[in-house]
UniProtKB/TrEMBL annotation:
<dbReference type="Pfam" id="PF03706">
    <property type="entry name" value="LPG_synthase_TM"/>
</dbReference>
<keyword id="KW-0472">Membrane</keyword>
<keyword id="KW-0812">Transmembrane</keyword>
<feature type="transmembrane region" description="Helical">
    <location>
        <begin position="74"/>
        <end position="93"/>
    </location>
</feature>
<feature type="transmembrane region" description="Helical">
    <location>
        <begin position="293"/>
        <end position="310"/>
    </location>
</feature>
<feature type="transmembrane region" description="Helical">
    <location>
        <begin position="237"/>
        <end position="261"/>
    </location>
</feature>
<feature type="region of interest" description="Disordered">
    <location>
        <begin position="1"/>
        <end position="29"/>
    </location>
</feature>
<protein>
    <submittedName>
        <fullName>Lysylphosphatidylglycerol synthase domain-containing protein</fullName>
    </submittedName>
</protein>
<feature type="transmembrane region" description="Helical">
    <location>
        <begin position="41"/>
        <end position="62"/>
    </location>
</feature>
<keyword id="KW-1133">Transmembrane helix</keyword>
<feature type="transmembrane region" description="Helical">
    <location>
        <begin position="316"/>
        <end position="338"/>
    </location>
</feature>
<feature type="transmembrane region" description="Helical">
    <location>
        <begin position="158"/>
        <end position="176"/>
    </location>
</feature>
<dbReference type="InterPro" id="IPR022791">
    <property type="entry name" value="L-PG_synthase/AglD"/>
</dbReference>
<feature type="transmembrane region" description="Helical">
    <location>
        <begin position="188"/>
        <end position="208"/>
    </location>
</feature>
<keyword id="KW-1003">Cell membrane</keyword>
Length: 343
């Protein structure tokens, strides 16, 4: 053995043994690229969906636009105003369903994008999915965000039904309600469908254990938030006032389009026709209620004395202004929110 001092040892022997290099995962550099590609794909998905929908349902837009070409432009401008006013009702109700204050600009943008998603997927699935992502991005816990969606979905039909009852009480002689009341068979079908839906939901909650705890947590949070929200006058006004005004604004769009075409029904009649039709058919799982609600509104307006062709054209014009006109801007806003990681 050498007795040389350590300082005289060669440099290679005195250098510390290098630590083994950590293995580089081959997936690490690819992960950010994959996320970027996925985000870009999600941003382009709304535009692809709108193109597919336009290719399938182009005839409706063409017919409605052709007939509206000869309508009174001032009434159509008023209908466009009411359509734009309706875009503010959903953010108002959403804010009323949450104790936390949300940024107004982003809330309006998210609901504008959610309106596009609502017309792509049935039963408001798209709108709720966009809103849920937005609320979680704002730091709202999942239970509270889910509870706000449930409260939003429950308040809207309740408020609409209350407004419909007010119309029935305030205008008993003006509205021909006898022709709009469903017969016994239809009433039984509606009652049976509601009963089956409630029973299926209860069975699902009781048998599927992974769903039980999140739903119970959301229910507890919802009850707590309902009590809290109804102690704040501003939230009560936003929640219930927005839910009550929203169908009246939609009715005003139909009335203005009908007036542009020469429809003889009054605003009260058109509003009642829309309230009755959307209340009866609003639960049908169609994208944005398009189809069943449209047919029911036309039927209600015809029952109140309007011609079939004018009623159908008024509803088509209503859909052009409330669905097709904001569809492309809504898709672009949704893509922009996805790109900026707001959703």
């Amino acid at each position: 053995m050498s007795l040389l001092p350590l300082d005289d040892a060669p440099e290679a022997l005195r250098s510390p043994v290098p630590a083994p290099a950590s293995p580089v995962s081959p997936a690490s550099p690819a992960t950010p690229t994959t996320l970027v590609r996925l985000r870009r794909a999600l941003a382009l998905l709304p535009l692809l969906l709108i193109g597919a929908w336009a290719a399938v349902d182009w005839r409706t837009v063409y017919d409605g636009t052709a007939r509206l070409g000869s309508a009174d432009p001032w009434w159509l401008l008023l209908a466009l105003f009411f359509s734009c006013l309706g875009w503010l009702s959903a953010p108002c109700i959403r804010q009323g369903a949450l104790p936390e204050r949300l940024p107004a600009g982003l809330l309006i943008a998210s609901q504008f994008a959610a309106g596009y998603a609502n017309h792509v997927l049935p039963a408001s699935i798209g709108a709720h999915a966009v809103t849920l992502r937005f609320l979680q991005g704002r730091g709202i816990p999942l239970a509270r965000a889910t509870a706000s969606l449930a409260l939003y979905s429950a308040v809207k039909p309740i408020a609409k039904t209350l407004v419909l009852l007010v119309f029935l009480v305030a205008f008993p002689d003006l509205l021909l309600t006898g022709e709009l009341v469903p017969d016994r068979r239809t009433s039984l079908l509606i009652a049976g469908a509601v009963t089956l839906a409630l029973a299926g939901t209860a069975l699902l909650v009781t048998t599927v254990r992974p769903l039980r705890r999140p739903l119970l947590d959301a229910l507890r949070c919802a009850l707590t938030d309902v009590r809290l929200l109804h102690t704040r006058p501003a939230r009560i006004l936003a929640l219930w006032g927005g839910a009550a005004v929203a169908p009246l604004i939609q009715s005003s769009v139909i009335f203005a389009v009908g007036a542009a075409l020469g429809l003889s029904l009054s605003w009260v009649q058109v509003a009642f026709a829309f309230l009755a039709a959307s209340t009866a058919m609003g639960a049908v799982p169609a994208p944005g209620g398009i189809g069943p609600v449209d047919a029911a509104v036309v039927f209600a307006m015809v029952a109140l004395g309007a011609p079939v062709d004018l009623s159908a054209t008024a509803v088509i014009g209503y859909r052009v202004l409330t669905v097709w006109l904001p569809l492309l801007p809504g898709a672009l806003v949704l893509s922009a929110l996805v790109q900026r990681k707001v959703l």
